[in-house]
Design brief:
Blueprint (H helix, E strand, L loop, with lengths): L2 H6 L2 H18 L3 H25 L5 E4 L7 H8 L1 H5 L2 H6 L5 H9 L2 E2 L4 E2 L4 E2 L6 E2 L4 E2 L4 E2 L2 E5 L5 E5 L3 E2 L4 E2 L4 E2 L4 E2 L4 E2 L4 E2 L3 E5 L4 E5 L9
Parallel strand pairs: 2-5, 3-6, 4-7, 5-10, 6-11, 7-12, 10-13, 11-14, 12-15
Antiparallel strand pairs: 1-9, 8-9, 16-17
Length: about 220
């Protein structure tokens, strides 16, 4: 991990501190200025900082070794989004306002269609990498993620990053799990408690490693 990656690990703490400070100011002086300041710190600063980062390092998909001294853009995005995983109510309230959550995901970099219905407890793990067509319905406690992580026998921690693609008009049943690289066709119905996975194993060839379809029992999502 690079120095930038190590510094990014402190962002969630700084973000929470900024939220706490702005909340105290809001209580002390409840006017329109402090309301805007509070909402901006909660919802705008992380995605705007990430998009600024993307001007220098555009988002890409593929394979990284997390414990190697190399830049990993997913790690930066993960740290910028950590507050919303730790305090999910910040996202849940956004879904009560039609169109607001979709617009927020677009701000992160996701490609989100029109007229999307998000139930309050949907969990989007990688907010910058979702691909959703128009008129999609997300059921209760649906989970979507764009990454999977595993450890090789050599000790390398491997990250595979691929966005899920959900076709227009799809209905995703409650508690469904949509994994990285999964493609759901238009007007599909994903059953209740379904799990659509992207699995892989890495097989050694003469001088390189290749990714093939398969099952890796040690692969996880964080």
């Amino acid at each position: 991990m690079t120095i930038l990656g190590r510094l990014a690990a402190y962002f969630p703490l700084l973000h929470l501190a900024g939220i706490a400070w702005s909340a105290i100011r809001l209580i002390q002086r409840p006017d329109i200025i402090t309301v805007i300041m509070f909402l901006s710190i909660v919802y705008l600063i992380p995605p705007l900082l990430f998009r600024l980062y993307c001007l220098r390092y555009p988002v890409s998909f593929g394979r990284w070794i997390l414990n190697a001294p190399q830049r990993c853009d997913w790690w930066i995005a993960h740290q910028f989004q950590m507050t919303y995983a730790a305090v999910p109510i910040f996202e849940s309230v956004m879904r009560l306002v039609p169109g607001f959550y979709s617009a927020w995901l677009r701000l992160w970099g996701s490609r989100i269609g029109k007229r999307i219905y998000w139930t309050p407890l949907v969990e989007i793990v990688d907010r910058h990498m979702l691909r959703v067509g128009d008129d999609v319905v997300f059921g209760h406690r649906v989970i979507c993620t764009s990454h999977i992580i595993t450890r090789k026998a050599s000790g390398d921690v491997i990250l595979i990053l691929r966005p899920p693609n959900i076709g227009a008009g799809t209905l995703i049943g409650a508690r469904a799990r949509i994994g990285p690289g999964v493609r759901i066709p238009e007007r599909a119905v994903v059953p209740y408690n379904a799990e659509y996975k992207f699995f892989y194993v890495e097989e050694p060839r003469a001088t390189d490693m290749r990714i093939v379809e398969g099952v890796d029992a040690n692969a996880v999502v964080i």
